[in-house]
Amino acid sequence: MSVTAIGSIGLDTLIVPTGKFEDVLGGSLSHFVTSCSRFGVPVAMVGVVGEDFPKEHMDYYSSMNADTQGIKVQDGKTFRWTGQYVEEQMDEAITLNTQLNVFETFDPILEGASQNPNILFLGNIHPCLQSRVASKASAKLTILDTMNLWINTSKEDLLGVLKQIDVLIFNETEARILTGEDNLVVAGKKVRELGPDIVIIKRGEHGAMLISSEDVFQVPGFPVAEVIDPTGAGDSFAGGFVGHLAKTNDFSKDSLRKAVVYGNIMGSFNVQGIAVDKISKTSWDQVEDRYQEFLEMVKF
After folding, report:
1. pLDDT category, 155, cuts 50, 70, 90?
2. ∠281-124-217 over CA atoms, to 5°?
3. How confident is the model at residue 114 (pLDDT cuts 50, 70, 90)?
4. Nearest residue to 70 (alpha-carbon basis) of 23, 18, 144, 120
5. Which residues pair with 50 in a beta bridge?
6. CA separation for the pair 25, 163 (Å, rounded)
7. How do residues 282-299 score in pLDDT, each as one tens digit?
């Protein structure tokens, strides 16, 4: 199945307990594409970079079997983010610096095959842009990611785009902010009333929850001994979720449950390395081994 993904591409500077890493490949698209590629699923990328974006990173996307024709190179500098994680609070980044650069005027345009994908993934960008893309694309399944920034500053725009999508992926804090509900099951059902039939609530190390018209599914996270860099774990989750659905061409209740599990697994690989380093070197056999470990872990 074909997948088109829209999102950010950036150069990150990461300060983590193991050291400082400057200008590593970042952005939601980078993590999503890397995760999806583990399932043998090619992704048509739609994003923007500056003239300073290293060619080696474009070559990396191609090595992930991604279509980079939708990445526009504009005059100026690439989006940059500097973040820090401290040992006692590895689940939350401290943002030290953000430079939007060319991403500030990003206007995603779908061209060619990217206009009619089987699955459209709308990464974490302004809901007005997400809405514009959703209205122009024809997809069997449209999946959206969002964040607390848009909930707090552009709620009406976000509520508008929720009516255009099939699946919403966000975290438990965002679910509570959007709905005002502390109980995640109630929050998920409230979000379904706003448009999306399927709501995925990410819970970090505690796993994820799926709420749909026919299912409420709670799955734990896959435990890892050491978290090195959590940046992009949510995007890797989305890549695993979409990767499984695209690989199997199956949107059934059972397949959606498996997709959530694969999402958790890809997120667990992501946090074990800096940026996309660990997940990009993860083989399909390793993914399947962890999937089987997960099944054993939850069997009773």
Report:
1. very high
2. 75
3. confident
4. 120
5. 74
6. 33
7. 999 999 999 999 999 999
How many Cα atoms within 13 Å fall on the side-chain side of residue 238? 34
Burial bucket for residue 225 (CB in 10 Å: 0-12, 13-18, 19+): exposed
Instruction: State the Cα torsion 115-121-124-129 to the nearest 10°.
Output: 30
Check whether 34 has a pLDDT greater than 90: yes
- Helix, strand, or coil here: 33? helix
> Is the CA virtual torsion 126, 133, 110, 255 positive or negative?
positive
Cβ proximity of 8 and 123 under 8 Å: yes
Element (H, E) at 149: helix 148-153
Q: How far is CA 158 from the centre of its chain?
A: 17
Domain spans in the chain, listed from the N-terminal domain onward:
3-298
pTM of the prediction? 0.95
CATH code of domain 3-298 = 3.40.1190.20
Q: What is the mean pLDDT of residues 127-145?
A: 93
Mean pLDDT of 30-51: 97
Pairing, β 141-145 against β 119-122: parallel
Q: DSSP 3-state assignment of 217?
A: strand
Half-sphere exposure of residue 181, counting CA atoms within 13 Å on the CB side? 11
Beta bridge partner(s), residue 47: 71
Is residue 239 within 8 Å of residue 32, measured between CB atoms?
yes
